[in-house]
Amino acid sequence: MTENTVEPRRLSPDELRTLFLFESLTDEQLGWLSEAGYVEEVRDGVVFNEGDEATCCYVLLSGEIRLCKLSHGELVEINRTGQRGVYSGAFNAFFGANDHKSYTATMQVTRPSEFFVISADTMATMMNTWFPMAVHLIEGFVMGMRRTNETLGERERLLALGSLSAGLTHELNNPAAAAVRAAATLRQRVSGMRSKLAMLADGTLDATKLHQIVALQDDAVERLEKNKDKDIPPMELSDREDTLIDWLEDHDVQASWDVAPVLASAGLDVEWMEEVLTAVGPKYLEGAVRWLMYTIDTESLMNEIDDSVTRISTLVGAAKQYSQIDRAPYQTVDLRELLKSTLVMMSGKLQGYQLVKEFDPDVPAIPAYAAELNQVWTNIIDNAVSAMGGAGTLTIRTRRDGAYAVVEIGDTGPGIPEEIRRRIFEPFFTTKPIGEGTGLGLDISWRIVVKKHHGDLRVESEPGRTVFKIVLPLDPERELESDPALLD
Question: Using CA atoms, how far apart are residues 369 and 331, in angstroms rounded to an integer?
């Protein structure tokens, strides 16, 4: 020991015995601990920060401490006490020798305070030597809880995946079946067109008139395309059909009731039919009309196939976006796209509910674990749908709040009572009947948002309005640099 080295102050075995933590130790154990620990005075400020490496256990001798947890970039006080003998820090250092340990909260002193300090290594040696059975029991309990959590967490994710897969299969089946039906009908229409074309071109219809019919055919297709997205009132469409039926019957066109709806849907009217009559004459009118009907019907069927295939492609794209297949786990993502893909995947569950989307275009893309955020949206939306019980409004909103992006998911369910609200993020806590919920959905969501993304997850609730707010930093690296307490 050099001349300038100051010997740390020790506590005698009798002084240690006055602390409730050590009152049952033997004289020999107290003597060992007296030599192993030392007294440290902290006059002001932080003793240790949340997330720092847990190197010591602190036992309060005098003064007052406050424990704080980080939430949305701010320290929130969770406890304040001056009780002699209370402890914090690396008190569980004896457990899991290979685990990375960090302080779970920030400890500050509110006035000059003294602590009896035990290093983490000393704590581990002491516990494993003096209380090996207790250590094994505690280790078994904690490891058992961890394995249970992991197993049920995997099951929760598999159940959610199964539910989403069933919904996706149902959603894919509708456009796929529509495309198959349209293709079968299209085959019939093309066959009909071939026969009518043969009748029109059997040598009695000159080339000029045939060119006029082709021009009318192109015009009919163009009109159909313009009217494709128009929402024509049913009464107006019915009047058009009736007018066309009268005209067709006056010109001896058979089964006019079958032809008129097709012509009317394309926006064709009596004036246009007069042009057809002028082009081909009365003799070939019926053949020309049916040929044009097949043309319109064929074009409509091709549009239906195109829409169906596009819908399938959109669903597959949404599934790929949702699962983040072939993408890096950590990447820069647009939260709006993640939310949209989740809503597509959950569209089967959202049937019967009013969906309100308010996406702020000014929210920038952020670095995140995309697939895991999709799991957060899924868990919260699933709970919201379950709470509303068949009818209600689901509101998804994004906005920017300074250095954070905020996603709000709200429902119009009965609300969460205050006594339950305090526990909803606890693992294994659920209000669902036995067998219907594991109580891990919100716990997993909380760990993804808070632990993995250094954000915040909170809830506001009253009868008829419950809103979950997911707060994510726009620049996680800068946030970590500015506040090392965020590091896990």
Answer: 7
Position 153, amino acid:
G
Torsions phi, psi for 310 (to 5 deg) = -60, -40
Q: Give, as one character, the DSSP assignment of residue 6.
A: P
CB 344 within 8 A of CB 338: no
Residue 10: what are its φ and ψ, rounded to 5°?
Answer: -110, 160
Helix (H, G, I), strand (E, B) or coil at 355: strand
Task: Say how far apart CA 348 and CA 240 lie, in whole Å.
Answer: 37
Domains of the chain, each with CATH number or no CATH: 13-137 (2.60.120.10), 205-310 (no CATH), 329-486 (3.30.565.10)
With 0-12 / 13-18 / 19 or more C-beta atoms within 10 angstroms meaning exposed / middle / buried, residue 375 is: buried
Residue 185 and residue 192 in contact, taking contact as beta carbons nearer than 8 Å: no
Supply 456's token pair: 């915040």
Q: Are 171 and 347 in contact (CB under 8 A)?
A: yes
Tokens of 395: 């509101």
Amino acid at residue number 413: G
Backbone conformation region of residue 19, classed left if phi is above 0, alpha if psi is from -120 to 50, else beta: beta
The CA angle 381-71-423, to the nearest 5 degrees, is 55
- Long-range contacts of 216-221, Cβ-Cβ distance < 8 Å, separation of 24 or more: 216/272, 216/275, 216/276, 216/279, 216/292, 217/291, 217/292, 217/295, 219/272, 220/266, 220/268, 220/292, 220/295, 220/296, 221/295, 221/296, 221/299
pLDDT band at 128 (very low <50, low <70, confident <90, very high): confident
Distances (CA, A) of 117 to 58, 91, 179, 192: 5, 11, 74, 93
Kindly state the DSSP code that residue 203 receives in the 8-state scheme: S
Residue 100 to residue 488: CA distance in whole angstroms: 9
State the pLDDT confidence band at 375, using cuts at 50, 70 and 90. confident
Distance from C-alpha of 244 to C-alpha of 269, rounded to nearest angstrom: 7
Distances (CA, A) of 416 to 383, 411, 427, 467: 11, 11, 17, 10
Question: How far is the C-alpha of 220 from the C-alpha of 199, rounded, in Å?
Answer: 20
44-58, 211-225, 309-323 — most confident range: 44-58
Who wins on pLDDT, 484 or 476?
476
Give the number of other Cβ atoms within 10 Å of residue 374's Cβ.
22
Residues 6+ apart with CB under 8 A from 237: 264, 265
Among the listed residues 6, 10, 55, the one whose alpha carbon sits nearest the alpha carbon of residue 36: 10
Task: Judge whether 350 and 388 are in contact, CB under 8 Å.
Answer: no
Nearest alpha carbon to residue 308 among 415, 180, 431 = 180
